[in-house]
Amino acid sequence: MRRIGFWAAVTATIIASGSAGTALAAGDAAAGQVVFKKCAVCHSIDAGVNKVGPSLHGVVGRKSATAPGYDYSAAMKGANKEWTAKELDTYLTDPRAVVPGTKMVFVGLKDQKDRDNVIAYLETLK
C-alpha cells in the first residue's frame, strides 16, 4: 500500500506542476505585482479603465483587441490571439516582434522569471 501512496503523490505533484516541462513554470503573483509596475505606466488593472494601453483586468483568457473602449492598432486588431499564459509569455518577450505594428512600444520582459511572475499576477485580475 505504501508504494501506491508514493506514486499517487508523485502523480499529483506532476499534474499540479503542469507536467514534465511542457507548461510554463508557475510564477509568483506577489512578485509579479512588483514587476507589473513597469506595465502600470501605460496599463490599468481596473476593469474598463484604459490608459495609453488597454485595461489588463481580465486579460488572461481574453481575445486580443477586445478591451471595451480602447482604440487598438490595426496590427493588434488583426492579430487574432487569445491571451493564454503561453501566448502572453511569447508576446511579453518582444511585443513588436510578435505583433509588428502594435502601438505598444515596450521592449518586453527578457527575464523568464519576470514574465512568469507578471503572468501569475495578471491571472489574479478577474
Automatic annotation (TrEMBL):
<keyword id="KW-0249">Electron transport</keyword>
<feature type="signal peptide">
    <location>
        <begin position="1"/>
        <end position="25"/>
    </location>
</feature>
<dbReference type="GO" id="GO:0046872">
    <property type="term" value="F:metal ion binding"/>
</dbReference>
<dbReference type="Pfam" id="PF00034">
    <property type="entry name" value="Cytochrom_C"/>
</dbReference>
<keyword id="KW-0479">Metal-binding</keyword>
<dbReference type="InterPro" id="IPR036909">
    <property type="entry name" value="Cyt_c-like_dom_sf"/>
</dbReference>
<keyword id="KW-0732">Signal</keyword>
<dbReference type="InterPro" id="IPR002327">
    <property type="entry name" value="Cyt_c_1A/1B"/>
</dbReference>
<dbReference type="GO" id="GO:0009055">
    <property type="term" value="F:electron transfer activity"/>
</dbReference>
<keyword id="KW-0349">Heme</keyword>
<protein>
    <submittedName>
        <fullName>Cytochrome c</fullName>
    </submittedName>
</protein>
<keyword id="KW-0813">Transport</keyword>
<keyword id="KW-0408">Iron</keyword>
<dbReference type="GO" id="GO:0020037">
    <property type="term" value="F:heme binding"/>
</dbReference>
<feature type="domain" description="Cytochrome c">
    <location>
        <begin position="27"/>
        <end position="126"/>
    </location>
</feature>
<dbReference type="InterPro" id="IPR009056">
    <property type="entry name" value="Cyt_c-like_dom"/>
</dbReference>
